[in-house]
């Protein structure tokens, strides 16, 4: 039976992903386990902004996004990073098609509540699942950059974890896999927790055990675990065979489940 999952690849780990990671993705695709990729690229955006002499500023983990910064965000995410992932998938022998949320109004967005403070940062209001399904139906792995657009044609910078969670909910996939640079959610003793519930997450944020870049991941997980999305798995992309383990076997990384 065909199985589908959304995979979020974080900028923390993209450059370090080995060729075997994409070969694993290809093997899954050949077995009928189909991926949709939503990617980040925060470190690459900051690096390019730095080269242009523009400082990176974050409020609660979200980048302050002026019109000038938005140009760089789109250039780096929808250009360099998106095409790098598409190329690497194609090198593995699988087919891939890159899109940003602007293409076909794939990701509809509205300004976040504190837009007066952080500028053109968006929340997802809708995802055009038909486009994603059409691309998958043609045998291509969709690779999506997290830029949103509103009815007036304004672009928004969207946190990639948030965008991936919204894509997972709207597609109604069974699982979202979050590929990052740590082996899962760790407790205060640095032990990786095999499973955490939504309630435990709230307690870990309150105690400070979950902080920084892990917060948008777990918030996106909480927002998308309902209906058909049964679990979100946080894994390290360095581990050989990590994707097939996470999708077919389990027992790797941290599973976030409803209860
Ligand atoms: N409880 C936790 N367990 C594991 N990592 C955590 C935890 N709390 C915060 N983090 C941090 O979250 C980081 C991953 O988020 P981030 O750097 O934004 O990655 P990405 O670019 O993949 O989105 C880890 O490198 C780690 O520093
Ligand atoms: C609004 C906001 O903060 N957007 C992010 C988008 C990229 C991202 O989320 O990348 P990672 O997954 O690598 O962190 C940014 O500008 O950095």
Write up this protein.
By secondary structure, the chain is an alpha/beta fold. The chain has a single domain (3-257), classed as Carbamate kinase (3-Layer(aba) Sandwich). 39% of the residues lie in helices and 25% in strands. It contains 9 helices and 14 strands. It has helices spanning 19-30, 42-51, 67-92, 115-118, 129-137, 160-171, 198-207, 214-224, 242-249; strands at residues 3-9, 33-39, 58-59, 62-63, 96-100, 107-111, 122-127, 141-145, 147-149, 155-157, 175-180, 195-197, 231-236, 254-257. The strands form 4 sheets. An 8-stranded mixed beta sheet has the order 5-8-2-1-11-13-14-12, with helices on both faces. A hairpin with a 5-residue loop joins strand 9 and strand 10 (155-157). Helix 1 crosses helix 3, helix 2 crosses helix 3 (67-92) and helix 6 runs parallel beside helix 8. The protein is globular. The chain starts with a strand and ends with a strand. The chain binds adenosine-5'-diphosphate and N-acetyl-L-glutamyl 5-phosphate. N-acetyl-L-glutamyl 5-phosphate is lined by residues 10-12, 40-42, 45, 62-63, 73, 121, 146, 157, 159-160.
CATH fold category name: Carbamate kinase
How many domains, in number, for the residues? 1
Topology as H/E string? EHEHEEHEEHEHEEEHEEHHEHE
What's the alpha carbon Rg, rounded to whole Å?
17 Å
Q: What can be said about the biggest beta sheet?
A: 8 strands, mixed
Helical residue percent band:
25-40%
Distance between the termini: 27 Å
Task: Name the hetero compounds present.
Answer: adenosine-5'-diphosphate, N-acetyl-L-glutamyl 5-phosphate
- The CATH superfamily is Acetylglutamate kinase-like
How many strand units?
14
Poorly predicted regions = none
Rounded mean pLDDT is 96
Tell me the number of helical segments per DSSP (H or I, 4 or more residues long).
Answer: 9
Q: Could you give the order of strands across the largest sheet? A: 5-8-2-1-11-13-14-12
Instruction: Specify the CATH class.
Output: Alpha Beta
CATH architecture: 3-Layer(aba) Sandwich
Strand content: 15-25%
What is the molecular shape?
globular
């Amino acid at each position: 039976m065909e199985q589908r999952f959304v995979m979020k690849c974080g900028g923390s780990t993209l450059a370090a992903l080995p060729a075997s990671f994409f070969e694993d993705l290809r093997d899954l695709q050949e077995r009928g386990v189909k991926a949709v990729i939503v990617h980040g690229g925060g470190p690459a955006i900051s690096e390019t902004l730095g080269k242009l002499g523009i400082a990176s500023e974050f409020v609660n983990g979200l980048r302050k996004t002026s019109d000038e910064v938005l140009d760089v965000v789109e250039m780096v995410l929808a250009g360099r990073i998106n095409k790098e992932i598409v190329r690497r998938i194609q090198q593995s022998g699988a087919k891939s098609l890159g899109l940003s949320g602007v293409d076909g109004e794939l990701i509809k967005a509205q300004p976040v509540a504190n837009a007066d403070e952080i500028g053109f940062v968006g929340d997802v209001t809708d995802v055009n699942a038909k486009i994603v399904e059409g691309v998958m139906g043609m045998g291509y792995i969709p690779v999506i950059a997290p830029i949103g657009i509103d009815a007036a044609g304004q672009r928004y910078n969207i946190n990639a974890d948030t965008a991936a969670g919204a894509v997972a909910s709207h597609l109604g996939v069974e699982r979202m896999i979050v590929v990052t640079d740590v082996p899962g959610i760790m407790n205060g003793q640095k032990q990786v927790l095999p499973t955490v519930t939504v309630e435990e997450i709230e307690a870990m944020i309150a105690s400070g055990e979950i902080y920084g870049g892990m917060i948008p991941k777990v918030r996106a997980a909480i927002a998308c675990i309902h209906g058909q999305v049964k679990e979100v798995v946080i894994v390290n992309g360095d581990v050989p065979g990590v994707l097939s383990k996470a999708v077919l076997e389990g027992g790797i990384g941290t599973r976030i489940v409803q209860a």
